[in-house]
Amino acid sequence: MSVLEETDLRVSLMKVTRRLRAEKSDTELTDSQMSVLAVLDRSGPLTPRALADFERVQPPSMTRTLASLDARGLVDREPDPADGRQIIVRITPSGAAAVTATRRQRDAWLARRLADLDPEERAVLARASQILRRIADS
Amino acid sequence: MSVLEETDLRVSLMKVTRRLRAEKSDTELTDSQMSVLAVLDRSGPLTPRALADFERVQPPSMTRTLASLDARGLVDREPDPADGRQIIVRITPSGAAAVTATRRQRDAWLARRLADLDPEERAVLARASQILRRIADS
DNA sequence: GGGGAATAGTTAGCACGGCTAAGCAGTTCG
DNA sequence: CGAACTGCTTAGCCGTGCTAACTATTCCCC
């Protein structure tokens, strides 16, 4: 078995991610917008601070992303009745629909590439996906 | 065996790449600047057009990135003696040093994570690296 | 050889999303 | 009560993606 070189893996990761990132269309949400919506869709209502921490972003950056999502009606922002400093961000039905639509569009490029692989290679990527997730969260 | 979902793989890739990107050296090179320098370091002098195509970016974006690298003395831009329309971009010794420094730092972060894996997991990532490279180049 | 088409690079201007600094409102606690 | 802390926002800088439009040069075909 080949030796795993950090540089090789890193370059592969960045290259394929750059390709993925390039696969956008006009109607599509940006990376950060999509990512925030996906978190809200999966985890339920959160505060801006919690979202910023999760995305490893500073609070002002999250404010801007949320303002943009709010303006498009994809999220709601309501004051927290229990703590006047906090805001509760909630995904709207329209936002949830956008998550689904955008995800589908985004996955299309990758799905086409995966379709060209043989089952064993797909299995490798499935396992790698889990391992990389663990690394990213560490 | 788990099913490979495009979304899972895509999110894993983007998450870990985001973490990697955060590991920049003190020289404060951005991802795109670093990427261009790395290409020049590996492939030798290139034209802006060639760099733009390689990075899958429009020429004006590359112009700006190159201007910034030029201003920092990390690349040189000289007219092509053979074709008056073209420019030849060349990495400087200082630019090559920046590549090495950043690469070392990013590899270090990843190397620490890989060290926590067992050999079988590392083998999976080694194979995935090759598969992803092929996908990125497709 | 001359003239239009194509190519290379740039400039201008917009959008977006990182960041820090600073400010305001609300909460906590000595 | 008042000072310190927390949560969010605003203001403003920067990098980098884009398109449109411009200049300069080269190519190619009549």
TrEMBL record, chains A, B:
> InterPro entries from the entry?
HTH-type_Bedaq_tolerance, HTH_MarR-typ, WH-like_DNA-bd_sf, WH_DNA-bd_sf
| A Pfam family | MarR_2
Domain named HTH marR-type: residues = 6-137
The UniProt entry, under Gene3D superfamilies, shows: Winged helix-like DNA-binding domain superfamily/Winged helix DNA-binding domain
Write down the SUPFAM superfamilies for this protein, in alphabetical order: Winged helix' DNA-binding domain (SSF46785)
The record, for PANTHER family, names:
CONSERVED PROTEIN (PTHR39515), HTH-TYPE TRANSCRIPTIONAL REGULATOR RV0880 (PTHR39515:SF2)
Record's protein name: MarR family transcriptional regulator
